[in-house]
Design goal:
Layout lengths: L1 H15 L1 H6 L1 H20 L5 H11 L2 H13 L7 H6 L3 H25 L9 H22 L3 H4 L4 H8 L2 H21 L3 H42 L2
Length: 236
């Protein structure tokens, strides 16, 4: 439920604030960093306020960061002339960077905890160990995607190289699902209703994206073939 609410809030704020985000991206990066830091701090130093705990949970569990990633990824499956692309496409890079910053509130506490018990990592359950390994791979992909989203670095890269790097978003998004699966599968098998609901929501989200991405790829291929045929028929 927290992820659904986070997703709704993220979409709404992205629509309302899309012009300021585009005009003052550094301000929003700083705000995302402050929220991420607060998520980490209040995870380590629990606050007695119920409201703070709810907000920290959404940030620290990665729901806000993942919601931003999901929004960025889903924008790409809409046609170029759609209202969704028109609204969100100009700020996809900015939303992606903010998502990367906010997801750190999820990665830092967990990774620091596991690194502190490095000598006993092999004693962890297999599903947790696999999820941890996936998290390490995702961290590398996350760093690459983040730094290449900044216009300063993007301008120094060739268009072909930049596109090849950005394609890493697909394995990152895929690994995110299996990372979540690794943590949720045991409680689901143990009869946890909450874990089952969460896994169902994530599964619907990722399956929907995969289906729409395939549909978009097929549509683009068909459009390219039609354009190619049109050029050939126009030749004398």
């Amino acid at each position: 439920m927290s992820f659904i609410i986070s997703h709704i809030v993220v979409i709404a704020l992205s629509v309302v604030l899309r012009k300021p985000i585009k005009r003052f991206p550094i301000l929003f990066y700083a705000l995302a960093a402050l929220i991420s830091f607060a998520g980490i701090y209040f995870t380590l130093q629990p606050n007695p306020s119920e409201i703070v705990r709810v907000l920290v949970f959404a940030v620290q569990k990665g729901h806000v960061g993942l919601s931003l990633f999901a929004l960025v990824m889903f924008v790409g499956v809409f046609d170029k002339g759609s209202s969704v692309r028109r609204i969100f496409n100009p700020i996809r890079a900015e939303l992606s960077i903010m998502g990367c910053i906010l997801i750190m509130a999820h990665l830092v506490p967990y990774l620091s905890n596991y690194l502190s018990m490095a000598a006993n990592l092999l004693s962890l359950r297999v599903n947790i160990l696999v999820a941890l390994c996936l998290a390490m791979v995702m961290l590398v992909l996350l760093i690459l995607l983040t730094v290449t989203s900044f216009n300063v670095l993007k301008a120094k890269m060739s268009a072909g190289t930049w596109k090849k790097v950005q394609v890493l978003a697909y394995p990152f998004f895929t690994l995110a699902y299996f990372h979540l699966l690794g943590y949720l599968i045991v409680p689901v098998m143990g009869g946890s209703g909450t874990a089952l609901v969460n896994l169902t929501i994530y599964t619907i989200l990722f399956v929907a994206y995969a289906a729409l991405r395939v549909r978009k790829a097929m549509a683009d291929k068909k459009a390219d073939e039609q354009a190619s045929e049109g050029i050939k028929s126009a030749l004398p």
